Amino acid sequence: MNSETTSIASTEQQLLSALQLSGPYSIPEILINMSLALMLGLLLASVYRYTHKGLSYSQSFTLTIVMVTTIVAITLMAIESSLARAFALVGALSIIRFRTVVKDTKDTAFVFAGLAVGIAAGTNNHALAILGGAFISMVALILHRTNFGATASNQFMIRFMFDNSHDRSHYEKILDKYCRSTSLLSVEPSQNGQFLATTFDIKLKGMIDKNKFASEFTQVAGVSDVNLLVAKSGIDY
To answer: Domain extents for the chain?
Structure first.
């Protein structure tokens, strides 16, 4: 009986030794750091999804923000203050090649935000991680709601087909009537040369209704297949 008890106690001691941490972080600290990084990563990802504009939204990129924030926290706990481990990590990560093209420079800012928050959470700087994540999210939301840095809302691109047998002055008069400025971007002739696929960059005057402008433009003789696009997000892929 004593031998069995001794065997069980020895097994329990071996399990505890296997679970014993070699670093300065206890299991509760590790769980707190990872959980905090995960929650802040979810916050940043949610803000990114809410503030995203254009047609290039990617669910995988949103998931990347969450994963990067958590992984960086784990990485910083693994490195601790060891310079040797840091160099070893750099050598290991140099094998990885990232070939994904970032279409929007704002996406890069969210990746850096995830890195910063993950570093703070992984080094036990919980106050910095929480306040930093909340501050970055607040700034992103404010910039989104105020539409900071956007060009004038009355700037568009107009694409249409024009029949060469008609006089251009007809549609030019409409452009002069409704537009503050116009800039010809491209003219592509059809195979038989009868039609021209024409694209203009335009800025409407004052409070001109874009629907009224588009409706009147479609009625011009020789003009067909009119497409009015927002100058920024309408052509963002």
So the answer is: 21-145, 155-235
The token pair at 187 is 């003219």
Q: Are 77 and 30 in contact (CB under 8 A)?
A: yes
Assign 229 to helix, strand or coil: strand
> How many residues would you count in the chain?
237
Topology annotation, domain 155-235: Alpha-Beta Plaits (3.30.70)
> Which residues does 142 contact at the CB level (< 8 Å), separation at least 6?
148
Residues 104/54, Cβ–Cβ less than 8 Å: yes
Q: Which helix (H) or strand (E) holds 199?
A: strand 195-204
* pLDDT in single tens digits along all 237 residues of the chain: 455 555 655 665 554 454 444 567 788 888 999 999 999 999 999 999 988 876 677 888 889 899 989 988 888 887 776 766 676 666 655 655 556 666 677 888 888 899 889 888 888 889 999 999 999 999 999 988 887 776 656 788 889 999 888 888 888 888 998 888 888 888 888 888 788 899 998 888 877 788 888 888 888 888 988 888 876 544 444
Amino acid at 34: M
Q: Where are the beta strands (DSSP E) in 36-193?
A: 155-163, 179-189
Beta strands in the chain (DSSP E): 155-163, 179-189, 195-204, 223-230
CA-closest candidate to residue 40, choices 68, 20, 21: 68
CB atoms within 10 A of CB 216: 12
Query: Which pTM does this prediction carry?
Result: 0.60
- The DSSP bridge pattern shows strands 179-189 and 155-163 to be unpaired
